[in-house]
Amino acid sequence: MTSENQFEPEIIAFSCHYCAYAAADLAGIMRLQYPTNIKLIKLPCSGTVDILHILNAFEQGADGVFVAGCLRGGCHFVEGNNRAERRIERAKDILDKVGLGKDRLEMFFMSSSEGPRFAEVAREMTDRIRKLGPSPIRGV
């Protein structure tokens, strides 16, 4: 919470080493402003994220989660980002069924040269989660 008592969400970003994590690094190098509530977890490939990782992030108190991988057709592991996207869709179904809501989870695609895109995604997710409010299982 800020001094104005505005909810500040905790957001976990599972990021591909080759593209999204590099884009986040570039955003920092470019000194682009984006919310500081994004916690990066570097993955060798977005395709290595498992639904259990996502659910565990929520169980540990995350208000939102996003997975960021390489551009479609540009995955360094050929199909990794496609596998991740399918897992995200299944995880969204689970989140809806358990009452958290699918809007707390998203998949984004970007190249390593898209620092501004990473900053935009961070702002977009933060705004979305602020509107949704704290996770119903936060602090349970």
Helices, strands, pairings?
Layout lengths: L10 E6 L3 H10 L8 E6 L7 H9 L4 E6 L10 H18 L7 E5 L5 H18 L8
Parallel strand pairs: 1-2, 1-3, 3-4
Please give a structural write-up:
This protein is an alpha/beta fold and about 140 residues long. It has one domain: 3-Layer(aba) Sandwich (Rossmann fold). The chain has helices at about 20-30, 50-60, 80-95, 115-130, and strands at about 10-15, 40-45, 65-70, 105-110. The chain has a 4-stranded parallel β-sheet with strand order 2-1-3-4, with helices on both faces. The mean pLDDT is about 90.
Overall pLDDT: 92
Distance between the termini: 18 Å
Percentage of residues in strands: 15-25%
Q: Can you tell me the number of structural domains?
A: 1
Question: What is Rg?
Answer: 14 Å
- CATH class reads Alpha Beta
User: How is the largest sheet built, in terms of strand order?
Assistant: 2-1-3-4
Regions with pLDDT < 50 over 5+ consecutive residues? none
CATH architecture: 3-Layer(aba) Sandwich
Q: How would a textbook summarize the main sheet? A: 4 strands, parallel
Spell the H/E element sequence: EHEHEHEH
> How many β strands by DSSP?
4
Structural class estimated from helices and strands: alpha/beta
Q: In the CATH scheme, what's the topology name?
A: Rossmann fold
Amount of helix: 25-40%
Count of DSSP-assigned helices? 4
**Dominant shape:** globular
